[in-house]
Amino acid sequence: MPGMVERIKQFARSPQGRRTAEQVRRAAADPRRRAQAQRLLGRLRGGRR
To answer: According to the UniProt record, where is the region Disordered (predicted)?
Structure first.
């Protein structure tokens, strides 16, 4: 059974993985989505003090 990293590599090479990566790139380029992600990461890190 392949390890977790190997499974991620296989997914990234698959057509579905390529589509997902492209969607993530487009979302990261959108300023609104970027701000939304930054807020989420801040909350996960315990940002509101």
So the answer is: 1-49
